[in-house]
Amino acid sequence: MKLNLKPEAILLLEDGTVFKGRAIGKIGTTGGEICFNTGMTGYQEIYTDPSYYGQIVVNTNSHIGNYGVHKNESESGQPAIFGLIINSFSDIQSRHDAYENLQNYLLEYDLVGIEGVDTRMVVKHIRSKGAMNCIISSETTDIDKLKAKMKEVPSMKGLELSSKVCVKEPKFVGDENAPIKVAVLDLGIKASILKNLTDRGVYCKVFPAKTPFSELEAWNPDGYFISNGPGDPGVMDYAVDTVKSILDSGKPMFGICLGHQILSRATGLSTYKMHSGHRGLNHPVKNLVTGLSEITSQNHGFAVKVEDVESSDAIELTHVNLNDDTVEGIRVKGKPAFSVQHHPEASPGPNDAKYLFDNFIDLIKNKN
Ligand SMILES: NC(=O)CC[C@H](N)C(=O)O
């Protein structure tokens, strides 16, 4: 019989609930907002999605690690998550082209995690109590010490994080001879979004989150893209101002997730922190323009207030979530600008919503 010799680890929730398990990754202590992703696959893409910066992910799929880590499946240069909570962790991978096992990958990036946790119980708990912070530790089981550490973990509400994960200097992506030029406001962009743009004949210039509109405009792009990203859209006035100027310019604009929240704010709508976020690969969304439904990939903990949408003259509601009627997409009346809360690039997830990238390209072509 193989003995499980991994050190003991503790998961402490903000409300004082304790779960015990075994250490994975680095031996240490970490804190962040706990959130769960219900995807059955795609853990590497999830961990490397910059929108998870500051968060500790619970994978509800109970087997994690069994297909290792692949060179081409990262959404950014390194994992963005602050920690990991797993039911059954495998440090043996069964895939011929995996370059590494997940345990070594976590060690490479100093990530602290816990396995052997009843993740169904954790998820039921945080679903009923709502979003909260947590601490994972594999270096101490002293709960009082960990409670003291919990006080140092900031609340996600009110946190600006895009400037921590975006490019530091403008960067070009794609073929410079491509027919369309899009200025990308990087609030924490996923690599697969850029790939969806470049695959459609777009040459991108990716700008840091806090770049003023004048600099974006100076490149003379055919359109603008506002990316996904971590943190609270409610405190990102700098990005809202940029997006307002883009709207004034009259050029086509597309926003995804955080980009959708920022475009919404720029049109006078407000955002709020959800009781429980949407994170998974099977969220049903109805396109109100076509009447068709799509299964979508999602990852957000904030949303646009539906009452604001109902009373707005500035926008039209284009997409709605069929699980809970939350706002999934808008377009701005009289302007070539639209956005969605879900992730058409998927990665991981279904491809039903990819047509939105085509819609953006069509908008640019018709405009120019
Ligand atoms: N994926 C994203 O862009 C997330 C947006 C925002 N940080 C939220 O949690 O709602």
Automatic annotation (TrEMBL):
EC number: 6.3.5.5
PROSITE patterns: GATASE_TYPE_1
InterPro entries documented for this protein: Anth_synth/Amidotransfase, CarbamoylP_synth_ssu, CarbamoylP_synth_ssu_N, CarbP_synth_ssu_N_sf, Class_I_gatase-like, CPSase_GATase1, GATASE
Active site: C257, H343, E345
Region (CPSase), start-end ranges: 1-180
Carbamoyl-phosphate synthase small subunit N-terminal domain mapped to chain residues: 7-137
Catalytic activity as recorded in UniProt: L-glutamine + H2O = L-glutamate + NH4(+); hydrogencarbonate + L-glutamine + 2 ATP + H2O = carbamoyl phosphate + L-glutamate + 2 ADP + phosphate + 2 H(+)
GO biological process: 'de novo' pyrimidine nucleobase biosynthetic process; 'de novo' UMP biosynthetic process; glutamine metabolic process; L-arginine biosynthetic process
Chain positions recorded as L-glutamine binding sites: S51, G229, G231, L258, Q261, N299, G301, F302
Domain of life: Bacteria
Keyword tags: Amino-acid biosynthesis, Arginine biosynthesis, ATP-binding, Glutamine amidotransferase, Ligase, Nucleotide-binding, Pyrimidine biosynthesis
Pathway note: Amino-acid biosynthesis; L-arginine biosynthesis; carbamoyl phosphate from bicarbonate: step 1/1; Pyrimidine metabolism; UMP biosynthesis via de novo pathway; (S)-dihydroorotate from bicarbonate: step 1/3
UniProt GO MF annotations: ATP binding; carbamoyl-phosphate synthase (glutamine-hydrolyzing) activity
Pfam families assigned to the protein according to its UniProt record, in alphabetical order: CPSase_sm_chain, GATase
Protein family according to the UniProt entry: Belongs to the CarA family.
Primary role: Small subunit of the glutamine-dependent carbamoyl phosphate synthetase (CPSase). CPSase catalyzes the formation of carbamoyl phosphate from the ammonia moiety of glutamine, carbonate, and phosphate donated by ATP, constituting the first step of 2 biosynthetic pathways, one leading to arginine and/or urea and the other to pyrimidine nucleotides. The small subunit (glutamine amidotransferase) binds and cleaves glutamine to supply the large subunit with the substrate ammonia.
NCBIfam families, per database record: CPSaseIIsmall (TIGR01368), PRK12838.1 (NF009475)
Subunit structure: Composed of two chains; the small (or glutamine) chain promotes the hydrolysis of glutamine to ammonia, which is used by the large (or ammonia) chain to synthesize carbamoyl phosphate. Tetramer of heterodimers (alpha,beta)4.
Protein name listed in UniProt: Carbamoyl phosphate synthase small chain
Organism, scientific name: Aureibacter tunicatorum
Gene: carA
